[in-house]
Amino acid sequence: MTAPEQRAPKQDRSRVTRERLLGASIDLLASQGWAATTVGAVAAAAGVSRGAAQHHFPTREDLITAALTHMIEQRIQSVRVVGLDVPEEGPDRTVAVVRHIVEHYTSDLFKAALQVWTAAASDPALAARVLPLETAMSREVLTIAAEALERDPADARVRRAIQTTLDLARGLGLADVLSDDAERRDKIIRFWAQSMDEVLIGTGKPHEGAVGGTPL
């Protein structure tokens, strides 16, 4: 039997190859779109053979689903900084939370995910894989944002305000695909943060045992 320390290098190489393939998939989706993101193109971009790529991901659907899952994990991790880097009190905190969410939905990761969404709209099998992942992503963002704002995610007004923020952020993300309107986007962020503060007045702060909001 091969000792664990002898198996480790091969396992490490396999993990590195898999991560390179996932990274290349995301880069191709964001920069060249769905049609260009084939197993062969991803393998070439990752610098591995097509056979090695198909060893990890036998079909294109397997590759894209794994890439989307990887994107979701990266996107959730990027959103978690909302709770780590916001002012303690005052309107600037709401501005910071809204800005973090909008920046997330104007990132390259969102642009890559958008390519998968578009393809899934006409592919029921792909949609069945994508929707649960995106639902979990939205639920996670809602909970993180509520915690950053020190509001109770179980409060209906809090959920509605943050869900509307997510919808707004997605719209700004779509607009950013066509042109860079950063200056206009900043004005919208500040206006919406002020509106959110007005909505959130009187809503409860998180209580022990509070649960996340409903999926979008």
How would you describe this protein?
The protein has 216 residues and is mainly alpha-helical. The chain folds into two domains: 1-58, Orthogonal Bundle (Arc Repressor Mutant, subunit A); 60-216, Orthogonal Bundle (Tetracycline Repressor, domain 2), CATH 1.10.357. Helix content is 73%, strand content 0%. It is built from nine helices and no strands. Helix 1 packs across helix 2. The longest helix is centred in the N-terminal third of the chain and has 29 residues, at 4-32. It is elongated and about 60 Å long.
Question: What are the salient characteristics of this protein?
Answer:
mainly alpha; single chain; 0% strand; 73% helix; Tetracycline Repressor, domain 2; disordered C terminus; Arc Repressor Mutant, subunit A
